[in-house]
Structure formats: C-alpha cells, structure tokens
Amino acid sequence: MKVTAHQLLFSVKLFIAAMIAFAVAVRIGLPQPYWALVTCCVCMNPTTGAIRSKAVYRFTGTLCAGLTTLVMVALFASTPLLLIVVAGLVATAAFGASFLDRTPRSYGFQLFAITLMLVAVAGVDHPEAAFDTVVARVSEIGLGIVVTTLVDSVIAPRSLAGTLRSGLQRWLPGMERWANDVFDGHERDAKEEHDRLKILADISALSQMTALLRYDPTIARGELRQTLAIQQRLLRMVPLLSAIADRITGLGAEEREALIPCLAEARACLAAGAPPEGGLADRVRHLPIGTGQERPWHQLVHDALAAMLVEVLTLWNEVKRIDSALMGEARLDRDLARSVRGTAAAPLPPDFGHALRMAAGIGVAYVLLCGLWLATGWHQGPNAVLIGTVALSFFGGGDEPGEAIAMFGRFAALALTLAAILCYALLPLASDFPTFAMAMGLFMLPIGTWAAVNPMATLVLAFGLSNINLQGAYAPMDFGAFLEASFASLLGIFVAFLGAGLFRTWGAGHQVQRFLRMEAWEIAQLSRSATRRLREIYIQRALDRISVMTARLAATGQVERSARLIARLRVGVTVADLRILAKALDPDTRQATEQLLDRFRREFDKPQPSPDLLSLIDRALDYLWSARREGSDVPTDRAMHSLAGLRIALFGHAPAWIPAS
C-alpha cells in the first residue's frame, strides 16, 4: 500500500500531540498520564472540524459524568450494590440516547456513559477516592484535548471546505440530469431510479456533517447556511420531479406532442438557471384536452403539472443564485438573502425503536458481566464490563452487529499483541524521555499512518495503550496480570456479541422492512390528523428514510423497489394535504373525504389497493367538482389536485375520472 504525504502528516501530528500531552501529564503529577496520551489518539482526526467537535463532546461528556459520579457516590456510597445498579441504569440510558442523536454529538453521550463506568463502577470499592479520581480523569482528558487541538491548529490544519464544495459539484449536475430526464419523458428503469436515490442520499448526508462543519474555523457561518439552503431546495425538488414524471407519462399522444415546446422551454430555463417565464404555466394549463367526458380529469392533470413545473424551476433558479453567491460571483437579493439567513440544518429524526433495542442489549450485557464480577470477586470484572458495553455501543448499532463486533474483537486482539511487544520489548529499553519517545515512535508512527485511512487503526492505538502500565517511571506490568486483563477485555467483547442478538434481527433486509413499516404507520397517522408542521416533519423523515434505505436495497438485491419509495412519499404528502384541507370543505365533501381516508388506512400497505378505494376517490372528486362549478375557491382546487395526485400515485393511469354530473 502506497503511503501518502497526508497519512505521514497525520501520523506525525498524532505522535507529537501524544508525546507533549504525556510529558506534561507526568510533569504536573497526574496519576494516570496515559489517559492524556490515549485522548490524543482518539481525538486526532484528519480534519480540524472533526477534531474540535470531538474535543467539545468528549470533554463535555467526561465532565458531566464526573459530576454525576460525585452525586451518586454521595447518595449510595454505603450501599455499593445500589451504586452499581444506579450507575448501570444511567449509563445504559446514556448509551441509548447516543443512538437517538445521529450526529457526531452522540459521542458526548457515549463518553458520558464510559466515564461513568470508569469512575463510578470501577471505583465502587473506594468511594472515598471518587473526588480525586474525577478531578484526575477530567484533568487528564482535558489536557489531551487541549494539546491535540493546539497541535492541529499549528501544524497544517485541514478544512472541510473542500468536501463541502465537492459535494455541491456532485449534487447540482446530478439533479440537473434528473430534471432533464423528466422533461425529456425518459422512461426510468430500476437501476436509473436507484442511481437517482444515491444522489438523494449524498445530499442528505450533509445533515450529519453539519455538526462538524460548525466547528471548522475556515468555514463561515454564512457559507454553511447557503449550502444548507441549497440542500433543502434540492430535497424539495425530489418529490416534485417524481410527480411531474408520472403526470407526463400518463398524458395522451396528442397532449405529449403539444407539451414538447413547453418542456423545451423548461429545459432552457433549467440550463440557464433562469426563473420560469410568466406564460409557461398558462401554456401547460391550456394544452389540447378535447371535449369529451374526460376533459375535467385532463384539466386537473394539466393544472397540477403547470404548478409543479413552475415550482421546480423556481427552486432551481434559487439554487443557482445561491450557488453563485457562494462562489462569490453574485449577491443575493434582499428576499432570498433573508430566506437563506433563516435556514437551519434539517433535523435527523431519531429512531426510538432502534435506540430502545440497543439500550436493552447493553443493559443485559452490563447485568451479565456485573453478575460475573460480583459472584466471583474478579478484580478484572470492571474491565470486562467496560469493554462489553463499549463494544455494543460503538459497533452494535449497524445492520450486521455480529460482524462489526467480531471485527472489533480481531482488532482488539491485534492491539493487545502489539501492546505486549511495546510493553515487554520496546519500553524496557527506554532509560530517559528521548529513548521513551523513540520506542513510542516505533509503535505509534506506523499505526498512525494506517489510522489516517482506517479509523479502526485508532482503536489499535487507544486500546493497546490503555492496557499497559504506562506511567512516568515505566515498570512493565506483570505478564500474568497483562494476560488476565486481556482475557477480561475479550470476554467482554464475547458477551457483547451475544447481547447484540437478543433484541434485534440482523440484516439489511430486515431494516428495509422495518423502515417501510415505520413509513406506513406515519402515513396512517397523517390520515387521522395533520398540520403543516406535521407534514413538513413527515417529509423530512421520509426523505431521510429513503436515503438510508438506498444502500440497503442494493445490498439485498432489491433495487427494483427504489421507484416505489418516492411514490410512497408522494402518497404521504398528498394524504397530509387532504387531511389539512378537509377542515375547510363543505360538510358533504368533508364526509366523503373522511370515508376515503378511513378506507385508505386499511388498504394503503396492500400490494394493490381495491377498486372500492378508487371509487371513493372518484366520489370525493365528484363532490369537489360540484362545489367548484358553484364557485371555485382555493381549498376546493387544492383538494382536487391532492385527490388527483393520490389517484395517480395509488392507481397509476387507470381509466380517467369522469364527473358524475
């Protein structure tokens, strides 16, 4: 493997920070100076934003855990068993909370739980030393954080700005191709639909990066807000493009022929990033529709198509203007600038079911390992408890937790082997700090080079250095004690492997089915009660689910299901619109809409909705058509467009709706 200059730089920065932190910790007399060194290994990252965000979350989690420990010790010092139980409950809750927050902030919850077990659980037999231990641990970790941040700030800090701009360079051409395919009437196959969802997943990934970008000193807040504004407009275009494609596909030959000039104009606006001309919508609305009974249905389709074309082109125009401002090529007008300033990162919806299952697995692993510790009095019991819960928290949350935890076990075994070489072959040769640094360099520099491209190598460093007696005056740990500590760690990993399967079904296919059930439940809830805010929350959740399902569909060979995902999103949005608009409709129409939504809840997730549901949609359209003939109003028109959209999404281009009168 070719080693790049970037890898060498990362390794050197890590080594310098670790040696400075360790030397300072020894100099000022901290009791466990290796924690400062280990903190440097964990916090060092190729990018400055990631280092600073992790530093904040790690220190906050450690400090809060230290204060919580002091409170618990004050309350339960006289009953050690109760202290272990309470500490386990609090740590399990913190680990569970880490799965609810899907941004790098989750690291703070994880460190809170880990520190709680390091201080409260491991020190349960010596509550009188709790205050000194908390102060020492916070000081050691704080020192490592400060040194890592300073070294990165001085030696070639690396910004995420390039990653941000390269993302925009992928998103905009991808979305433009998508829109052009729609305007060309290009028929989509399963692979093309899946490739489009990859673009969506790429755009959605910015939401997870936002927490890191806020800590990057080279990225201005205005630049970040502009990127988020582009992201959110692109996400709004996704269901619109899907709906436009379905409506164009359902047009008759004469209508499609007449639409060609309008779509050519739309493509020209798209290429130029220009706003739609005022007459475009009118020309689409007045496409030839004949004089037969199907005229009202065709007019509905044309009206909705005109509105969606205008909305897509308006959004794209705003995207291009914001992009030009981001590149320093133009300035935003007052209204768009105000809109951009009000942009916030789209929240990543928490998965409560997943978090509860993970917390349950971690809780069981904690109980089993604590039970073994208390039953045997094994002095390595706390180490097994710590490693078991850490393995589940950091590696048990994926689709295949067994494979991830087994990989963690392999890297842990490698770390312990290398730590034994360092402990018993290299460090005994050191007689002063220069020779100590040389020995540590032989261990750290090659692994640091590897860690620049493989985060698991960081585990080798941190895990290995945590399992040797690394003090200011080095004395090798008794080899038997080292083997015993290593066995405790591997035992904890084995129990974590067992705990990972107690409350979860493994596999990407199961996760896809679970997400689809969540989607169906949310749409059913919207059919009962909806507001504008709930509608927007649903759209955010649905787009997020689609993005996380994309890779899973490919992994399980279900790429053909990609097209249905956005169709389900459109159904959910339409149902929410109907529920909101129903309140403003006349009593008869509202009753027909209620009956439709009741039937929809029973049939939505069936492979093929029944003809009875289609009849209820047409019946509601009949009522709305009558109300429209008596006097058109905005709620009636919007409700008709929503019903037409629901009809197309559920039944495709079934025989056109024909008004009863």
UniProtKB/TrEMBL annotation:
<dbReference type="GO" id="GO:0022857">
    <property type="term" value="F:transmembrane transporter activity"/>
</dbReference>
<dbReference type="InterPro" id="IPR006726">
    <property type="entry name" value="PHBA_efflux_AaeB/fusaric-R"/>
</dbReference>
<feature type="transmembrane region" description="Helical">
    <location>
        <begin position="7"/>
        <end position="28"/>
    </location>
</feature>
<feature type="transmembrane region" description="Helical">
    <location>
        <begin position="355"/>
        <end position="374"/>
    </location>
</feature>
<feature type="transmembrane region" description="Helical">
    <location>
        <begin position="56"/>
        <end position="75"/>
    </location>
</feature>
<dbReference type="Pfam" id="PF04632">
    <property type="entry name" value="FUSC"/>
</dbReference>
<feature type="transmembrane region" description="Helical">
    <location>
        <begin position="404"/>
        <end position="427"/>
    </location>
</feature>
<dbReference type="GO" id="GO:0005886">
    <property type="term" value="C:plasma membrane"/>
</dbReference>
<keyword id="KW-0472">Membrane</keyword>
<protein>
    <submittedName>
        <fullName>Putative membrane protein YccC</fullName>
    </submittedName>
</protein>
<feature type="transmembrane region" description="Helical">
    <location>
        <begin position="485"/>
        <end position="507"/>
    </location>
</feature>
<feature type="transmembrane region" description="Helical">
    <location>
        <begin position="439"/>
        <end position="465"/>
    </location>
</feature>
<feature type="transmembrane region" description="Helical">
    <location>
        <begin position="107"/>
        <end position="124"/>
    </location>
</feature>
<keyword id="KW-1133">Transmembrane helix</keyword>
<keyword id="KW-0812">Transmembrane</keyword>
<feature type="transmembrane region" description="Helical">
    <location>
        <begin position="81"/>
        <end position="100"/>
    </location>
</feature>
<feature type="transmembrane region" description="Helical">
    <location>
        <begin position="381"/>
        <end position="398"/>
    </location>
</feature>
